[in-house]
Design a protein that fits this description.
The protein is an alpha+beta fold. Among the domains are: 122 residues, Alpha-Beta Complex (Dipeptide-binding Protein, domain 1); 232 residues, Roll (Dipeptide-binding Protein, domain 3). Strands 1, 8, 9, 10, 11, 12, 13, 16, 17, 18 and 19 form an eleven-stranded mixed beta sheet that branches. A four-stranded antiparallel beta sheet has the order 4-5-7-6, covered by helices on one side. The protein is globular, with a radius of gyration of 25 Å.
Length: 527
């Protein structure tokens, strides 16, 4: 397979790319309906196997070539895709009935043996301690134990627990059974890869065997850039119809006459971690005071130019998963309230006894200051997290909390979080498609860096993982978020956002989100 692609990536392909770069992309409306070019950052991706994805923007291209058993709609609810129906009696053994009209782009029919092989490869890779890349769907090992094909159109997938959340793990891309480890596997999506030059371009054409309505957009040409400067320049000089970016520098184009801005939500949840083993933060009143003293809207508006989706819990606001217990409890848990923050700190015994602007107390016969270390790690070509950390410092100082900001590498931040060597840390979590916050909140789990321990929360997570329908699952998620609000184990700020700058609206999807940022492009031009 690799040798075939080396033949395809020839000098003629490079000439084609140069011709396309020099061709006016906005010449006539007819051309826009049949061809679309998009730019994005890509420097790492060398192969097209979606199980081994390295770059999140690149996954938007994977979603055009590969399909899953189930897709999530605008309401984040499971809908049929390659699986038309599914059933279970015990929420452990799930039987999926597949489409009869799904074919890979090479003309071979997609069947249950392909699905089973893909599932088992994902699990094998996830459990391979020697693998450098365990795969972007590695979390499936916590949800799925195995998959077996009953016949060509029926696959049985066994869950690790009786669990409604299992369905959300069925959003993995299905590959041909003999190509699950191939560098360039074919897919069942509306488009197929024709030419690929890593870090340069990817040319997609129609999958003539796709089961859906024939797309209006016949060709999609993706061009890759190493820096945001190069990316935005490509858009400015009309080399591409659209660009996908998370860079806040694109905010300067928002609302401009030459570009439409389509916001999308990433899975990156930005949080302020609190070390509950630090004596200052053991007291829930201090943790809540910090939450009340922070103004996340100001943080998002200043450093991120609004390229965020605000949330006060680990779930995206505006979805069926999100719940704010303030109305039920009568306490506005997530409202900026500096007066209440100061009141709580005073109740906790922290006063400014010497008038220097920093609260203090006598502890073990010694005067100690309410002074906290804040670690922050930065992203390449992006200073927004450091800016946010400094803004947090300034906001908390108004409540008499001294914050000492130190920028460190991601590797060092991870090391210190694992060792519990921090007071505060501005960090981000890549959230899974399965709406389950257990890795952040349950006992000693890997993402529970703040050492939060709650028998009540553990019991709720256990309860969630036994819910067998959406109603029970949603109700338990509400209980989890209510407990999260009361205990304040850490502080959610927002989901990072991205932007598609485009010269045309290419989708009618209401909730544009990773990894399907280009979802709906095949229908562009339909009334």
């Amino acid at each position: 397979m690799r040798s075939t692609w080396k033949t395809i990536i020839s000098s003629s392909a490079l000439c084609l790319a140069l011709i396309m770069l020099l061709t006016p992309l906005c010449a006539v409306a007819g051309e826009l309906s049949s061809s679309f070019s998009v730019g994005m950052i890509s420097v790492k991706t060398q192969v097209l196997n979606p199980l081994l994805a390295l770059e999140r923007d690149f996954q938007s291209l994977h979603s055009l070539m590969y399909e899953s058993l189930i897709t999530l709609d605008d309401n984040y609810e499971p809908q049929p895709c390659l699986a038309l129906t599914w059933k279970t009696n015990d929420c452990i053994t799930w039987t999926f009935n597949l489409r009869d009209d799904a074919y890979f782009s090479d003309g071979t029919p997609m069947d249950a043996y392909d699905v089973a092989a893909t599932v088992n490869e994902i699990i094998r890779l996830a459990k391979d301690d020697t693998a450098e890349n365990r795969g972007v769907y590695a979390s499936m090992r916590y949800t799925v134990s195995k998959a077996v094909a009953n016949d060509a159109k029926t696959v049985v997938i066994t869950s690790t627990r009786p669990y409604y959340g299992f369905l959300f793990a069925m959003t993995f891309p299905v590959l041909k059974q003999e190509e699950v480890q191939a560098d360039y596997p074919v897919g069942t999506g509306p488009y197929r890869a024709v030419q690929f030059s890593p870090a340069n371009f990817l040319y997609l054409s129609l999958n003539d065997y796709w089961w859906g309505e024939a797309p209006n957009v016949k060709e999609i040409n993706a061009f890759f850039y190493a820096t945001n400067r190069e990316l935005t320049s490509a858009y400015e000089y009309n080399r591409v119809d659209a660009i996908i970016t998370r860079s806040v520098t694109t905010a300067q184009y928002r609302g401009g006459v030459s570009a439409l801005n389509m916001d999308y939500r990433t899975r990156q949840l930005e949080v302020l971690l609190l070390n509950l083993k630090a004596y200052e933060l053991e007291d829930i009143k201090v943790r809540k005071a910090i939450r009340y003293a922070l103004d996340p809207d100001a943080l998002a508006g200043n450093a991120y130019y609004g390229m965020t989706s605000r949330t006060d819990t680990p779930f995206p606001a505006g979805t069926w998963m999100y719940y704010d217990p303030s109305a039920a409890d009568g306490e506005k848990y997530f409202t900026y309230n500096l007066e209440l923050a100061n009141q709580l700190l005073t109740e906790a015994g922290w006063e400014d006894s010497d008038g220097d602007g920093v609260r203090d107390m006598v502890r073990d016969a010694k005067l100690v200051k309410l002074s906290l270390r804040l670690w922050v790690y930065e992203e390449a070509e992006n200073s927004v997290r450091v800016e946010t950390a400094n803004a947090i410092r300034d906001q908390l100082s108004k409540a008499g909390i001294e914050v000492r900001v130190t920028t460190i590498s991601f590797a060092l931040a991870k090391e210190r979080l694992q060792a519990g060597n921090f007071d505060l840390c501005l960090a981000a979590f890549q959230m899974d498609s399965v709406p389950d916050p257990g890795f952040l909140l349950y006992g000693p789990n890997t993402g529970n860096y703040g050492r939060y321990r709650s028998d009540t929360m553990n019991a709720l997570i256990d309860e969630l993982r036994k819910c067998r329908d959406q109603g029970a699952y949603q109700e338990t998620l509400m209980k989890i978020q209510a407990e999260f609000a009361r205990d304040c184990p850490f502080i959610c700020l927002f989901y990072r956002g991205g932007a598609v700058l485009t010269r045309m609206v290419y989708t009618s999807v209401r909730d544009i989100r990773e990894p399907e940022v280009l979802k709906g492009i095949e229908k562009m031009g339909n009334e």
